[in-house]
């Protein structure tokens, strides 16, 4: 059997940041600050929603679930990345690499599904306000959150199983800073085009499905808003969607670049910088956007935490 001569790979070497040897300390400090801010921002959102009873609504339940998925997604990738930036030998065991891929895809797709659910929530609130309490009941909202997490877990399992059932031989050097599908596929033996096409098709179908559902929701939302007679009413209705829409455009914008980019030769520098956009930059910006562009949440943060902070300081 031809595969009998292949030596089993027990670990992988991550060389994503080797393209920037003189910038690694600067990257470490920058990404550590961005990671801490990401954690703080998401924890602040969750704590505010938990403590302020006026925010105990479906929209903020989904926002909390989104923050949890974002915290877990960044925890899967960034701490190891920060450790590797300070290390001279950036290796990851075979099983740890599989685990990282599973959890990054699970939490990443859970994030996409929750954004879709939030779009549906805004559609019901604006297009069917009289039926909102019925359609978005606590039990119904809980089911949507559970299905989002279940869907993300299935995606993580499918992708990870498909990739790690391949045989890896020869080089064990991953041209990235975490265990991502494209660079791992290049290390597999034999003809992997069928698996690569299957994984790509599953991911693109899921992302496009979510994107189309969100687009459909916002088409109906825009049509409903345009029927509102007063400019103030139109502005108020759209302001409830602004933060979600901004995050959706950012999330799917970066995702489309990653999954639909050219399959030709890519530079290590380009792959690394592109990876930073969706592992560090997007999670960093999301809580800022939700906090600053959502007036209700911004006021609740001020009331719940900043006022108490000023009282203690005085």
TrEMBL record:
Xref: InterPro entries: GPCR_Rhodpsn, GPCR_Rhodpsn_7TM, Olfact_rcpt
Keywords: Cell membrane, Disulfide bond, G-protein coupled receptor, Membrane, Olfaction, Receptor, Sensory transduction, Transducer, Transmembrane, Transmembrane helix
A Pfam family: 7tm_4
Example of a GO cellular component annotation carried by this entry: plasma membrane
Residue ranges of domain G-protein coupled receptors family 1 profile in the record: 41-290
Superkingdom of the source species: Eukaryota
Compartments it resides in: Cell membrane
UniProt entry tagged with the keyword Transmembrane: yes
The protein, known as: G-protein coupled receptors family 1 profile domain-containing protein
Origin species: Muntiacus muntjak
Lineage of origin: Eukaryota, Metazoa, Chordata, Craniata, Vertebrata
